[in-house]
Design goal:
Length: about 180
């Protein structure tokens, strides 16, 4: 997988991309991710370097959100089919659908793993319903960065990261707690 800093339309306009890989995610107006085989991605990286387009090969062991993950389908569905699923009580906004998830089951989770992610659409859908505060609990701050890129003025004061490389997690939690309990 490769993260590319460019407008998502670049994917559709560039045969070197759409002929050799699949669009895996559109995260915001100038960031998307592609998935593909190693050889194809190596050629794409060479092309992106020549064009001086910022990109980063992602340190993942599988090409998620694409047909490249198809070999895992049978094992995944076999594992997931024995689980118990119920209709969500709390609304789930899905980056897979770019909106409200109506049903959550083993197929839903397979689609999350194997189909493109529509993060930007999901945030727009959510923001049309509510004015949200976002808490990134991941180790890298990716969610917070993606949210802030939607609209820095709008989201900059409503997006919080918990984990840091500087052991500030408890301080960050207390800061958030104080913001919401005053």
């Amino acid at each position: 997988m490769i993260a590319i800093l460019n407008r998502p339309d670049f994917y559709y306009e560039t045969p070197q991309l759409y002929e050799n890989c699949e669009l895996a995610s559109i995260n915001y107006s100038s960031h998307f991710v592609i998935s593909g085989g190693d050889e194809q991605l190596d050629r794409i990286i060479h092309f992106l370097k020549e064009k001086q387009i910022l990109h980063q090969r992602l340190a993942v062991s599988y090409a998620f959100h694409s047909s490249q993950i198809e070999a895992a389908k049978e094992d995944f569905l076999s594992f997931a089919q024995d689980k118990s699923y119920r209709k969500p009580v709390i609304p789930i906004i899905s980056s897979l659908q770019g909106g409200l998830a109506q049903e959550v089951n083993d197929r839903f989770f397979w689609e999350v793993v194997s189909r493109p992610i529509r993060f930007q659409e999901a945030i727009r859908y959510l923001e049309n319903l509510y004015e949200c505060n976002y808490i990134d609990v991941g180790p890298s701050g990716t969610l917070a960065n993606f949210i802030k890129q939607q609209d820095k003025e709008k989201f900059g004061q409503r997006c919080f990261s918990i984990c840091t490389p500087f052991n500030q997690e408890l301080k960050n939690l207390h800061t958030i707690q104080n913001l919401f309990h005053t």
